[in-house]
Amino acid sequence: MTQVSMTVNGKSVSGDVEGRTLLSSFLRDHLSLTGTHVGCDTAQCGACVVHVDGEAVKSCNMLALEADGADVGTIEGQANADGSLNVIQQAFQDHHGLQCGFCTPGMVMSAAALLKDNPRPTEAEVRKYLEGNLCRCTGYHNIVKAIMAASGQDVSSIAAE
Amino acid sequence: MYNFEFEKPSTIADAVAALGSEDAQALGGGQTLIPTLKQRLAAPSSLVSLSSIAEMQGVCVEDDGSVAIGGATTHAAVAADAAGSYPALAALAGQIGDPAVRNRGTIGGSIANNDPAACYPAGALGSGATIVTNTRQIAADDFFQGMFTTALDEGEIITSVRFPVPQAASYQKFLQPASRFALVGVYLARFADGVRVAVTGASEDGVFRWSEAEQALSKEFREDALMDLNINPANMIADLHGSKNYRAHLVKVMTKRAVQATI
Predict the structure, then answer these.
(1) Which of A22, A43, B147, B195 could join B206 in a cystine, given CB atoms 3.0 to 4.6 angstroms apart?
(2) What pTM was computed for the model?
(3) Which residues of chain A make contact with B35, given a CB cutoff of 8 A?
(4) Phi/psi at A146 (5° precision)
């Protein structure tokens, strides 16, 4: 076992992990932050997306020890300080951007990473950025719409009302 | 996944020393290696992470105009930082996997793995790049030796990859949308002394140069120069996504598109 330390959602955390412990396992099993979902466990579905030093990564495809010393953000750290939903989360609710909700944590984390670099993306840019986030319920339309809305753009003309 | 020791050296020298132990394996971004370990297709005794080695990070333009990329530079960093110095290569990097994969996966990892459908081997071979390791410099023409096979020795690390910058270049990727690898990808680079065409995703021997197309295009750089040329399908990959004939056909189609994009 090796000790790993990192900052998760602004709090310093540490724990003893094996070499093979994945970042997703560390978050879920050691820190009980089960909002980060493990869908495919093969780095394809994107349900496990978190931010490591501000960049979106698939936490099921990164070793916990690789994140030693890093600043990690998960879905649990997305809400506003008063506990209310942040603008992206609220937009997912307002525009019905989820059905079963399993992919949602990864979708929200990817959306946050996109909007940080590209605050007013086009619909095509949103769809392209979400290539690594799979949703089996919604057909993506309302997810795209929610992200467009979260970026402050008018979404009244986007299809699939 | 079987357990292993984990080491994260901060210099190339320490990484080389760590890789000297038996069954040690280098870890780039892990976007292929970690899934491989999960499937128990590999069982190294220790993983030596290359992600904290500062001298293996970043994109820089050398005195001779070539672009040198540190072996541990992520695809996302190449897509952003090489956009000015070598746009076609930056565009290739920006098409690998998906955004989260590009934030972890590295050029050295991709080239050392030499997946037969990966993008970077086509970019390196098509550019006539030099693979720089901790011990030597290897021309791309000598480096890629068949599917998942390279000239690297045990414990040898790709510290950087040096790309001569062509007058014009284009990577045309026919995406396999589930894997996000190339079903067929063609990297075409036009230099003052000739054209290079490298093909990925198509051959059972991994990335290769289509020399007939290179000769024809070096003589006359236009789409029609390819008219009478065909790839022999015998050596093409056949799987549920495409037959040998389909891939052979796609090689020509993607090469034509690359010509159109650079004309």
Answers:
(1) B147
(2) 0.96
(3) 42-43, 61
(4) -60, -40
Which residue out of B10, B101, B106, B176 would a mutagenesis test of the A interface target, given it has the greatest number of A Cβ atoms within 10 Å? Answer: B101
| Nearest residue of chain B to residue A68 (CA atoms) | B8
Is A61–B5 a contact, with Cβ atoms under 8 angstroms apart? no
Crossing angle of helices A104-117 and A87-94, rounded to 10°: 120
Chunk chain B into consecutive blocks of 10 residues (it has 263) and report each block's average pLDDT, rounded to whole numbers: 97 97 96 96 96 98 97 98 98 98 98 98 98 98 97 97 98 94 98 98 97 98 96 96 97 98 94
**Residue-by-residue DSSP string for A32-85:** --TTS--SSSSSSS-TTEEEETTEEEEGGGSBGGGGTT-EEE-GGG-S-TTS--
CA A145/CA A122 separation, integer angstroms? 11
B118 and B246 part of one domain: no
Q: Which CATH superfamily is domain A2-76 in?
A: Beta-grasp domain (3.10.20.30)
Of residues B6, B97, B103, nearest to A65 (C-beta): B6
ipTM greater than 0.85: yes
